Each structure stands twice: as structure tokens, then as C-alpha cells.
Amino acid sequence: MERRIHAMAATRPLDRTHAATLFADVSARPKERLLVGIAGAGGSGKTALLDRLEETYRASGIPVSRDHGHVDPAGRAAPSAVLVDDAHRLGETDLGRLHSLVEGHHIDLVIAYRSSPLTPALDKLVRALERHRPQVLLDPLDRGDVEARIAAVTGAPVPAALVADVLETTGGMAWLVARTLAAVRREGNAVLLDPHGMDGVAQHLGRDLQRVDPGLRQVLLSLAAGFDSAEVEPPWPDFAGHTIDELVDEARTAGLLLPDGRLIPLVRQALISTMPRFRLRSLQRTLVDGYVATGCALDGVARDLARSGVRDIRVARTLEQAGDDALGADPARALKLYDEAKAAGADGLRLAARRAQAALADGDLEGAGRTVDGLLALEDPPDAERAANAAAAVWSRRGLLNRGADVYRWLGPARAGESSPLAAVALIGVGDLAGARTMLGAAAPPGSPTLPSVASALMGQGSLDAVEGRSHEALSALVRASDTLTAAGVHAPLPEQPAVLAALVAFHCGKPGTAESILAAALAGGQGGAAVRPRLLLLQAWSQMLLDRPERARAHIAEATRDEHLVTPRDKLFLHALSVGLARRTDDLPALVHAWRQARDYQMHVVADLYCLLPLGELAVAGARLRDGALLQPQLEEAWAVLGRLGDPPLWSLPLHWYSVQAALLAERPQDLAPHAAALVRAAAQDGPVSRLASRLATAGKVWVAVLAGEADVAAVVSAANGLASAGLAWDGARLAGHAAARVDDRRDMNRLLSCARELRRGVRPAAGGSPEASGPPTWPETPAAATPANTAPSEGVLSPRERDVARLVLQGKTYREIGETMFISPRTAEHHIARIRSRLGAATRTELLDRLRLVLDTEGSDAGTNDGGDAEAGSR
Asked: Coiled coil: which residue ranges (predicted)?
């Protein structure tokens, strides 16, 4: 029977080190005899190794025999080598004959045997062989062995996950790996383990296992039912003098058990697939009864019982509790446990809110939404508070915070309990300040101050402080909330993460550096888990954009979008606004147009709320620059309505007023500018830290209007630009100084303004397409490039790095003035650069210049180089 079970093991290739060493010794035929024992469990490849050794002997012309019983060492036809399989089955007489071969003759002897238990006669023979050579122990296959065998069958690279799956299923036993290869198939370049094929493998194996001895089969069936733990005595009868330990040892040496005594998963599957249902369920009920009677927990066997189809409320409750324990830190595991609990008989409605929470934390927004939606349709759903939190979080991530607020209104203050502060966050986000205060006022008396409950309370208080004008208190409370939730390490359903709220308050206070540090700490601590990580990264990218570090911003964006299914609709609004903002700040017009088109179409998928004012403001400026902002107006009107319902709180409204000022300037609509300028002036007249930000923005707006009117006061411009930089808007300040420099006549004034612009953007220089890249120390020259002596020019046809930057802007069709504004040089200096480039390249006409620039810069056919009607030679416009 065991020959039948293990037959396929002989088909595997043998390339392990010990086998290769034996083959080499036989081929070399050294003077020393080859006397060695080969030990291993059933199906570990002992027979295959002997077969290969026999082939090697015969290929070397050496007589070899597999029949030790007819070997006459004194005869003329005596073989030079004897190979013996299954030596553990031999009696004392045969083993004694083999022992005499070791002691008295010049014959090679290789025996293969099960590693345990050894009879006294076999142990004596093994010890005699070990005096000549250590035994060869055939251990289970490792990853490299399994990968090699799959590759030999498929002829294709093998995925690491497939190798791990086969190892887990087979325990690395060679005979089971050989059988599993029948279920491996190749589809194109992919190598897969066919589930239907594995079912067939299990069925065939199960039929083979039906023929083992009754005592051994009873042991195997009991282990398959779950009796592989030391907690409960299995119902094993006494079989003809065989003890339980003897039967377990036999199963282990037959290659059916793992070293710790558990069944190999494929063997378990095979036994269950062929065991009568009534027999299996009877054994499993006995197992559960035994655990309960002895007071042992079912944790170790509950999952296997549920997976095999057991429906028992005791098993279900065990799995439910295990899911609760895993819910906070390992939502993927919790979701599986809840599903298994439901399969074992747990109430699906009682589990629904927890399953939704786990799915949400695991990044399955759609699954969480479907689960909680059915639950909230009930008149009196169980676990209503948790269900409301999950539903509100789903709506928020969809970009529909207003619906999340509706969920909390439906829940009501009486049922909100410890979730009242979270309800307040959602209600404040949609402008319902009265509702938020009601929720906070009706909050349940605080119980034990757990980390999540403390974080929740701080979030509610910080959100209220932010709209009531207490910006310092708001930021402090939200930072503490973020630290506390990170320390808790739980993935709770929230309308917004505390790190995001804290970062948004910092942004609105003009402190992008503070926001960066808050977000960095949250990311390092894993706040919210993998499902929340993209949002934190996108906010981190926003801080880098404001700090004028575009390459770092793009790196954060790339990391955030690596797993696209985790980027929620709410996050995509920030993602599109970042693309627009980076293109605008790097003067990349083609990229700006492309990003704007995507953002313009996408913004209809979300509803404006308090926590998305920054991306809406950025999009408003881009729309004004491209004369295409009409589609954004409904969103902006809703944003202003939210602020209006909150009493136009300065902390939240100032940045949007500033964005609106810029949009009005770009659109050349002075009538749109007035209300926002007035709002900035009013806010500047108030007391408090936000008034300082308002004062800087109001002053900058006034100076910018004067600059556009041709009345650039150099001292006022420099002061306003530095004020913007101190408010976290260094790029805006540099742009203001650059615009002013292009509009003054005095060379000293122009140099002073350009120096101010360079200082505000130190560490950044234009790259391809005018895009700034981080470059460490300042690279801008302190004097215009026109002062470079002619005799230091590079050889003909070679451009300096500075001239290459100018050349790229020429190919984009920029005028002298636009080149000067982009690079913070004067239009006259830009003209001088272009004249030198023409001279170096030997271009007599405009067309020749463009063609040669394309060749030099390797930009042939680029969109940027197709604007023949607007190149820098057209002069300043």
C-alpha cells in the first residue's frame, strides 16, 4: 500500500547535494568502499536515489545488485555493489547478512530505511555503516528544491507565491510535491496551481489512503477531524496491541505528518474529501465536546472546523471573539475570522457592522459599503453606533461627507455614545455647527480613558476650536489626537484621520512645515493602516508642493498611487489638484492643460466640504489661468456656503480667499477681486494668530494689484514677498517679485527684485520644460548672465547648462518676458542668452534655430516645440 501512495516520488529529479556527492563517488570509483545508509520518511525519495545510483554504477561498468538475498560474496559473479531498499522491513537474518557484507568483504553497500523507529538489528547495521560514512538524511524539500521541480515541468519562471503555496500544502514532502505537480499548469508566461486540479489530487490521494491499515486510518481520520492538539484525548480504540504512540510514529515515518505531529494539509484535505460526512461530523462534535468539557479554549481548532463545514455556535463564538481581537490591528485577518464565524453559525446581522469596519480598514470600500448599507436599512439595526461610524467613513472616502453627516443625524445624539465627537467632525465638515455642538453636548459620560476614545474626544474638540477662532488650541488638540491614535495602533472607521485634520489646520494657518512633520509622524506610526496611507502621502505631497520641493512631492504621489484601488474618490480630488498645482508652479503649460482637463471632469464626482477647500482653491486658480473655470463654480459656491453656515471662520476661509484673489487677477476680473480683498482686510483687523496671516495676504494682494497696474514699489514688493514666504507661500512670494522685476525700468530695482525671488526659491533651478528640481545649494548667479565674457564661451555647437534652460523655454514658445519671469532674469538678459545660442549653433533664421535646438536637446517632435508662432524672438509681450 505505501508503495502505491509514494509511487510518484520516484518521478522527481534528484539534484540535492548529498545525492550529487554519492553519484560523484560512484563515478570516480575511489579506492575506499561506498558504505552508507540513507534515511528518510516514506516518500522522501529514498527509492529514487537508489535508482539513480544503480544507473550510475551500470554506466561506469560496475556490477550492481538490488537483490541482497542471493548475493554470494565468495562467488565469481558476485556484484561489486549492493543496493537495499526498505531495510526497515528486513528481519534479523537478512540484516545480519548485510552486516557481514560490511565487515568482511570489498563490496559497496547502500541501504535505505525509515529514520525511526529502528529495530536493534537495523540500528546495529546503521552504526556499522556510520563508522565509514555519516548517514544521508533526506529532509523535506526546501524552496529551491520545489522551485526547481515546478520549473522542470513548466519550463517557465516560477512565482515565489506559488512555491510558498506548494510548500505549505505539502509540508515539503517529496512524494506530495510530485503529486501536486499534476495540478500545476502554465497559461502564457504565468504558472498557476489549478484549484480543480488540486481537488483531483486530493481525491486520488484520499482513495489511496483508504487502503492503509485500520488502526493507522483511525488515527489519520481523528487527526483530520481536528484531534492534532495535546488539549483533548482523541477517541482512539485499542488496535491489536498497537499503542497510540506507535500508530502516530508510523504515520510520521510514512511521511503523512509534519514534524510537530500535525497532518500535512494536503493529506488532511484528502482524508476529509473521502470521509463520510456523518463520520467526520461525529468526530468533530466529539472534539468540540471534549474541549468544552475540559475547559480548554477552541482557538487552536476553530478555524479548521469552520473551514471543513462544521456549524456549531461554540465554534462560531470562538471565531467571533478572535475576530474582535484582531479587528483593531489586523483587519484582513479579522474579516476572514468573521466570515468563518458566519459559516460556523454566527448571526450575520450581529457581525455586519464589524465586517464592514474590517473591510473598510482593509481597503475594500465597495464591500464595506454594501455590507453596512443592508444593515442600516433595518428599523433597529444591531451595533448601530459602529455601523454609523463605518457608513460615515465610507461616504467620506467617497467624497460625499454630507451623506456621512446624514448618517450621524439619523443615529442621533442619544445613540451616538462615544462616537459623538466623530459625528461632530462630520457635521462641522458640512457646515452644521449647531448639530456638532448638540452632539458634543450630549456625549456619553467618559468611561475608562482608552487611547481611541481620547483621540476621538480630542478630534471633536479640535474641530470645534478651529471654527470658533481658537487656532492654537485647535492645532494642539488635533496633534495630540493624531499622536494618541497612532500610539493606539487601531484602524477605526473615522470621517477623517486626526493627522489629516491637524495637517489641514496647519496648512490653513500658513505652516506647511508643521503639517509635514505631523504627517511624517503619522506615516511612520502606520496611522489608519494601509487603506489610509495614500491620503496621508497625498497631504505630505501637498506640503512639499507648498515648500517648493516638486520632486519630493512627485515621489509621495507615486508612492500614494502605487496601489490604485486604495486611492479613494476623495483622495483623487487632492491627486488631481496636486497635478495641477505642480504644473502651474513649474510653468509647464502642456502638463497644466492635461491635468486641468482631468481635474475639471473629476470634480463633479465629489461634494465640497470644509476639508477639501485647498484642492478646490488650487483648481480655481488653474481654471482662471486657462479661462475655463465655469464648470467649477457649483463646487466653489457650495464651499462658500459651508463656510457661510459656519460663520466664515477666518482659519478655514483665508486660503480660499487668497486663491480667489489670484483667480480674479489671472482672469482680469477686478469685480471678483473686491469681496475677497475686503475679507482679507477684515480678518487682518482682528486679534489672534490668524490675523497675522490675513494681514500678510491682504498686503500681498494689494501690492500685486499695484504691480499689475505698473506701480511697483520695490520695498513694498520685497516686504510682501517675504511676508508670503513666512506664511508658507514662498513660491507665491517669488512669483510676485519676479512679476515686479519684469515691470520696473531701473536696473538696480530689477536686480533687487530678482535677488529677492532667487532667495525665496533658493535651492531650485529650472529644468526641462521649465520645471524646478531640487539641486541643493543655490545655483542662480548673483549677476546677470550678460556679464559673462565672450572669450569664456564653450566651443561652437555646445550650450552651457544655463543656455540649455533658456533653449527649452524657447522651444516652448515663451517670450523674452515669460522666460525672464520663469528664470528670474530680466527680459534683456533672456534676449542676450538667445542671441548667444543663435551664434553658437550657427542659426541664420528662426526656423534653423528651432531645428538645431531640437537636435541639441533631443526633443524632436515634442509638443513644446511645435509652437512656431510664439517663440522668444517675437519679443516681449
From this structure: none
